[in-house]
Amino acid sequence: MTDIDPITLAVLAGRMEQIADEMDATLFRAAFNPIIAEAHDASHGLYHAASGDTLVQGKSGLPIFVGVMSFAVKAVINKVAEAGDLADGDIFIFNDAHLGGTHLSDMRLVRPYFRDGQLFCYLASVGHWHDVGGAVPGNYNPAATDAFAEAFVLPPVRLARKGEINQDIIDILMRNTRLPQSAQGDLNGQLGALDLGVRRMDELLDEYGADTVRAALDALGGRAEQLMRAELTDLPDGRWEATDYLDNDGITDAPLPIKVALEIRGDRMVLDFEGTAPRCAGPVNIAYPTAVATAYVAIKHIFPALPANAGVMRPIDVKIPEGSLLSAEFPAPVGGYTETILRMIDVIFSAMAQAAPDRVVANAYGTINALSIAGKRKNGQPWVMFSFYGGGHGGTPEGDGLNHGNAPISTATIPPMEILEAAYPVMFRQWALRPDSAGAGAHRGGLGATYEIEVLEDNGAEAFLFGERGRFAPQGVAGGGASAMNVFSYEQADGWHHPPMASKMRGIKLAQGQAVRLETPGGGGYGAPGTRDPAAVARDVALGFLSPEKATETYGPAWQEIAQ
Amino acid sequence: MSSTMIGVDVGGTFTDVFVLDEATGQARVAKVPTTRPDQSGGFLDGIGQQVSDLSSVAVVVHGTTAGTNALLERKGAKIGVITTEGLRDVLEMRRRDRPRTWGLRGDFLPIVPRDLRLEVPERTLADGTIRTAVDLDAVRNAAQALLDKGCLAVAILFANSYANPENEAKAVAAVREIWPNPHVSASSEILPEIREYERFSTTALNAYLQPEVSGYLNRLENALKGDGFDGEFMIVQSNGGVMAVDTACRLPVRTALSGPAAGVIAAGYIAQTAGFPDVITGDMGGTSFDVSLIAGGQSMLSPQTSIDFGMVVRTPMIEITTIGAGGGSIAWVDKGGLLNIGPESAGSNPGPVAYGLGNTRPTVTDANVVLGRIDPDNPIGGKLERLDVEAASRAIDDHVGGPLGLSTTEAAEAILTVANSRMAGAIRLVSIERGYDPKRFAFMPFGGGGALHTGALIDDVGLARAIVPRYPGVTSAMGCVIADMRQDFVQTINAMVDQLDEGALAAFLQDHVKRGHALLDAARTKFDARDVVVELDMAYLGQTHTVAVPLEVTITDGTVTPPTRAQIAAAFDAAYDATYGRLLKNGVRRVMNLRTAVIGRRPKFDLTTLAPQGGDVEAARKGSRRVHFGKAWHDTAIYDRLALPVGAEIAGPAILEQPDTTVLVDPGLKATVDQYGNTIIERVEA
User: Fold this and answer.
1) What is the per-residue pLDDT across A550-561, written as a single tens digit (0 to 9) for each?
2) Does ipTM surpass 0.90 in this model?
3) Residue A512 forms part of a structural domain
4) Distance from CA of B388 to the nearest CA of A (A)
């Protein structure tokens, strides 16, 4: 291995990160569907030629992809290992979540990068396509019991061979989506991002030479590992457990435990999910790659300065029990993977809080609340309003949690209410913070939200919800309290109702003038509520964040004197 | 006839004054310390140093950070909000984002607390239909309640008021009847554009700034008049154009990036005059490096910015990309052994270790000091007697050299290499993201430290050359004198092109043109020309990112000839194809917003008046000192930059010094003084 000086290494680290960032920027600008263009549900990076390990990844893509992309590359490596026919100019495409993680909406493109006739590394691009067939538009089907009910399944196949695009593959793809125009736009954007990555790698290797860049990549992995080991060494040794629950799988109304045992010994850590529920019928299963990637997301939230490369995970052993809903085999449905991985992050935080309370924050609201409202306009034109909704973040060692944030696995922003009202026949009666939703604590959680949406269309509409946290509230840490639970209500002629499965329901019929209401959880509290500054309690009451009754019940009467 | 023009830029540390006598073409500059909290002291002091009789002054143009600082330091006024029932939390909920991707830390405090955001019954739907008429008694009660609580300004924020302002306009009229001052901001007046959070935030921030900024500007204007000034007082906007002071008092949110915008305008003018219409500017301050791109003489405008997390201002502004690599940025080695620069900064106080004000962690400036690139005996700014080179060396040894096994000079070179590489990365990204090859651009440094890094950036990015303006420290003040008068207007249209009401679009455009011309008419400044620039934000149906579509519109004697659907469709196809390289078969074209800029072109002054008169290279030579480049110390000639004559050519290594700037000419480069007094730095041809 070529030795590399620390200055060149620091410069190359920045240059390679920039290549991945530029690939992100290229796709965001060109993508057709707002899930990529606005919510940045995509990612790009450089991956190891032999192992598929993440070498460098862009900073602006979706957090969950940081860990999961290397599995997509490994799937391609396994495929070409059989035939041994990898060539410069090949591009692979697939969406199989059991091989590449996350869910079937994520289309992965993997392209080998050759230098002087030798495989140097892989470049990859993943993006969430708007529709990939299946039973439900947009692919969030709460009643799916296998992958085939969720979307069409594409294993890794060659989209291009030696630089020649195979139009047949594109024709198959476009025949299997409800939104071919959008899909074609996204595909072009992803191909453009890979092209740009190849050009930038050529320039970098021309400038520095392949040996130096390879040495830098090795060194960066080594340093990331060293950084992680140094962080772990700073933490106390021990073993800590935490358990939380999913409400149900959407098919059977029974809670599903997610359990972790976190063990630190010296500079190593084990995350063992033994005790987690077995594979279930509904779509809250996840594939093994997703589970491992989620551990990475949680770790990076706890140690935000860690770089996005595989070296970080070398000192960490993630044990996912076989047969559990965290390693569901094909063709188990995995469309609701977001809910399950949010719960994994919650239990890792809760366990780590026992080891090092100053390093973690309390649980965030813990559900993406995928709500769609659909119908037909007077002229017969169908409409589907689909969005995710926000909630509170957990209290932190430094202060109260953020009101109305995005999910820890995402950086997506919510579409403006006015854009939704302009595009669909709905009106928001409320778009507001939800009082009494924050978990109590020395530093309370952030507040969740209340969204109440009325249907304006004569023909009425149908609503679908895929959510969680309707039966088990987000937890506090270091003595902090739990937040309010997710509450979904819908209006009928005889008044308001709740779904029998708490936060999951299909086909709710709404007449014109009727509404649905989503009251999302806040974040858990940090630290014992009894130690909260009474002035902060009085301020929350004055602002209407906290009712006077709840304030006294939770924090005692001391705030009342200040409020005088 | 009065013929003096004065530009005043008030920055964080210094207030810069640029005085131009149009009759003689003579320019003078002054630099005085900025006074705080009231900046008017330094403002008047700076002018007073160069101009004794204000009655001879025709125009004073001011680039101000008063608005920026009030936003960053959260020192605006106590204000209230009156809004639609059900929506009082929009300002606090933002767009459901978070401050940083990783870590889940950080809170957000809205500028208006929840108990000062009051709801009233009213509702307009997205198509403009009024579903609930506004309850004016409730509006009056809300306004009175806010006054009783001590609010100095109020923002009226109604849902969908961009589509139909009727409810909001009635409420505003009712509030203005009882509100005791002019500080009433309405969302449909400030920004009639779809997207409630962006519109509400911009409007609320306008109200938040109004008492403070209008008070400050009125104080200045009165003080100027008291000293005999009878000319026109104008303010630089974030879009790089100027506006009359009364417009600025009404729309203070448009000054959010006033200071930096003026600098970019001046840089563009200087570079284009010198023959380099493609230029990338780099302003290196204490904590950051601000990059802006000018192509073909045109600076880029971005539609909005966040002043801080959750503080969105949506008004056109000169696009400036900031990275955390300034002179005060701290160099550190992480637990994995990797050298990093920033984002933590020692700023200007305590500043670099060499300042001796208490910081012990090495900064980029410390590396420049240790390598001899900054003269320790004559620190810029004049606050300090001497820089502490030994302390800077020790800090570099302790925090960088030791952990990495490097000597002091090697470690200092390493710090600069990594810092330069980050600055080079920012330059590459701003150009590449817009589809430009950075190699055809010149680099123009301004601000205190930029000219120390030009050689490295030329090398790293492959830039053709650097151009250092004669007075890099007063670029923003000069920009004030150069900038055109400009007003921007926006209106959301939200219609498919094939169903577009051409008459309605033309009526909005006509209104923009009429209001823009009225503002130009009211100005006493003479304009060389008037321009109207029309753009439509357009996209295919289903796409969220819009493309800016320039539209040629015929305007005769102020009357707009309505653009047709066919013209709009063709303009979209051309702009879309230029952006994405392909069109969408069967795509439905949609017009989202109409944007109009009405510009009054102000006369430009002759930059040759800034050029040195006479001079002699040998006489300008002040001596030499040892400076480290690459791997060795070089005996390096030092010149008094302002004493160099036109045409002087200095081979590197050399240092050109002037009171507020040090220009470094690396080995292998040469510096030439052009006919305007700029220093052009290029490679020595082999």
Assistant:
1) 999 999 999 999
2) yes
3) yes
4) 26
